[in-house]
Amino acid sequence: MKISLIENGLNIVESLKVLEEDLGVTFSQSGVPLTITKSKNKETTIRYENGKGSIEYGETYHVYRAVGLFVQHLTEKEEGFFIQESPLFDTVGPMFDLSRNVVMRVDEFKRMIRKLALMGFNSAMLYMEDTFEIKAYPYFGYLRGRYTEQELKELDDYAYQFGIELIPCIQTLAHLDEFLKWEEAAHLKDTRGVLLTGEDVTYDFLEKLITAATKPFRSQRIHIGMDEAEDLGRGHYLNQHGYTSRLEIMTEHLEKVTAITKALDLDVMMWSDMFIKLASESGDNQYDLSTEISEDFKENIPKEVDLVYWDYYHVEKEHYQTLIQKHKQLGRTPVVAGGIWVWNTFATKYDFSLKASEALLQASKEEGVKDVFVTLWGDDGFENNFYSAMLGLQLFAEHHYNQVVSQEDWYKRTKFCTGISAEKYLLLAELDLVPGVEEGGIDQTNPSKFLLWQDVLLGVFDKHLEGLDLSTHYEELEEKIKQHRSSDEALDFIWDVPEKVSAVLAKKAMLGVRLKKAYDEKDLSVLKTIANQVIPELIEKVSTLKASHKKQWYTLNKPFGWEVMDIRYGGVVARLETAIERVNDYLTGTLPFIDELEQERLPFNANLDKQTGIGWSTYYYRMASPNVFFHVLQIY
User: Fold this and answer.
1) In b/e form, how buried is each residue of 291-320, taking b as 16+ CB within 10 angstroms?
2) What is the CATH number of domain 91-428?
3) d(CA 143, CA 129)
4) pLDDT at 635 over 60
5) What is the C-alpha separation between 453 and 449, in angstroms, rounded?
6) How far is CA 473 from the centre of its chain?
């Protein structure tokens, strides 16, 4: 399709041409005439009649979504159409976790930015704990794929042309484990991941950190983190100063940090959980609905700091409304951050995320929230990828322009903006929606991860699987994914890993249960088949999966962090090879018994019978073994 752009000195033609491939059009002198003008208000109107199109847009970022809508509806062969949109939030955008081994390549981040422009976002946060450079601290982000100042500036320039504000989201208190582990940083450490507050050297470091984090960006906004500092003041600080309340330490620290941000003329956001937690009766209940905010407590939070309420655990609109109202008692309407669950799994938990997001977004509108973000965390190494969240991101974008979102329109927009159907995205959830998981369940469950990484001889999750047929589920899912694959779709490659995970789990999911049963029943024939046929075939499939995953990783991300996946896959293969040896030694009489298979199987999670899922673990090393992977004092 060719489109002839007519714009009066708006300087948007070049940035629109960058989107030609994404839009599936060519902007040229000939083609469908499309006149683009700047509106005097925030409203955007899109018209097509008598073979001519026109767009009037409010803010710069509106025009890219508007052109996308124009092309989309024109492609649907509508004779004429009229679309009118007004933004419902001041800020809306995703937050990319670039600190849990995945650091997106600059070229791939640019592709993501183009997708965000078509969707209609006006911001994106870059969550960088230590993945940017501070020249005075060479160990900060060392060997972690950190962005250079020039790379971040390049990304900011690229986003700016589409009216997208890139905002650094950093940590100035906790979650700094990966820097504080180095001997160079020992003088800055309170506990394993928390900075030593109250010390001049700490604030000298933070001044350099905040300066380095903000210098590459046009935005004057910064997110300073400060969440989940549970052990604040309980390490070296306690030794030096004795017991001090966390609220007192937190308040004094925030004052010193905001003194730095004021000097740099920055607008500050921070996560709100620590303050809401410290306001609760116990001091430990995060976002407790019964928490009462006193007038005195309000004084602990500087008025110039915007609190960010993060929550993606509930599907009731009323829950979010109550917590937003709690935040309002602190004297301001909070920024709200939801999430699409891409973390701690190979799946993307659309079954829960979409319900939780719908509830949160409706509550935000009704409570007058002006700034909304959608977090894409990457906990525990991040086996998943950001593109798998696009259906969820599109939902947030549609809520920005619609009081009520039509599922049909949302799905069509997703297909247009990403090239992938909603139905194909929803297949990803089935990696974790296995037999035994209750429909509509709200408990966290990640079988796609723990079934892959757990050891077949030890079977730490095998008790959870008794009586289930997961092999058939994964066989069928592998075929469903294959049927939805299309080499014509630019993002189709991200389904290669889920397809091959399904192929592996079709053989591995129930293998430990089968192995234990055959051993207990002294079924030597089955044991021989498992050791000499099933496991060798499984090793080949694991190797194929690893190759696919590596290709995806190197396509999307910097290489740093992949070594963790190499180790994980290598561990799976090594333990499968050991299983072959152990079983064959038993079959030949070299071993009188297999000690690992003599052990009774117990549930990994307590109260499993009360769960709607079939188990959950946050950490790979707990899935792989109940034994010691590493020993570290939690405080020091």
Assistant:
1) bebeeebeebbbeebbbbbbbbebbebebb
2) 3.20.20.80
3) 14
4) no
5) 6
6) 26
Rounded to 5 degrees, what angle do the CA atoms 140, 177, 194 make? 105
CA–CA separation, 119 vs 123, rounded Å?
A: 11
Which residues are CB-contacts of 457 (< 8 A; sequence separation ≥ 6)? 512, 515, 575, 578, 579, 582, 594, 596, 597
Cβ contact 314:321 at 8 Å: no
Q: For residue range 199-253, what is the model confidence (pLDDT) as tens digits?
A: 999 999 999 999 999 999 999 999 999 999 989 999 999 999 999 999 999 999 9
Q: What backbone torsions phi and psi does residue 380 show, to the nearest 5 degrees?
A: 60, 40
The 10 Å CB-count burial string (b at 16+, else e) for 387-406 is bbbbbbbbbbbbbbbeeebe
Instruction: Please say whether the beta carbons of 160 and 118 come within 8 A.
Output: no
Q: What residue segments make up the domains of the chain, in order of their start? A: 2-85, 91-428, 432-624
**CATH superfamily, region 432-624:** N-acetyl-b-d-glucoasminidase (1.20.120.670)
Name the amino acid, one letter, at 627: N
| Residues linked to residue 29 through DSSP beta bridges, in sequence order | none
pLDDT-derived band at 279 (thresholds 50, 70, 90) equals confident
- Measured between its terminal Cα atoms, the distance across the chain in Å is 62
Using CA atoms of 68, 72, 78, 83 in order, give the dihedral in degrees to the nearest 10. -40
| Cα dist from 346 to 256, 317, 338, whole Å | 41, 28, 20
Lookup: tokens for 466: 């008794």
pLDDT for the residue numbered 283: 61
**Residues of the chain above pLDDT 70, percent:** 98
Nearest to 98, CA basis, from 90, 89, 109: 109
Q: How far is it, in rounded angstroms, from Cα 489 to Cα 485?
A: 8
Identical topology for domains 2-85 and 91-428: no
The 3 state secondary structure assigned to 503-553 is HHHHHHCCHHHHHHHHHHCCCHHHHHHHHHHHHHHHHHHHHHHHHHHHHHH
Structure tokens at 572: 């799976």
Q: Superfamily for 2-85?
A: N-acetyl-beta-d-glucosaminidase (3.30.160.230)
Residues counted in the chain: 636
3-state DSSP of 81-138: EEEEECCCCCEEEEEEECCCCCCECHHHHHHHHHHHHHHCCCEEEEECCCCECCCCCC
Q: Is the pLDDT of residue 372 over 90?
A: yes
Please answer whether residues 125 and 223 qualify as being in contact, where contact means their C-beta atoms are separated by less than 8 angstroms.
yes
Task: Annotate 490-510 with b (16+ C-beta within 10 A) or e (fewer).
Answer: ebebbbbbbbbbbbbbbbbbb
Cα distance between residue 115 and residue 176, in whole Å: 31
Contact present, 326 and 406 (Cβ < 8 Å): no
CB 304 within 8 A of CB 341: no
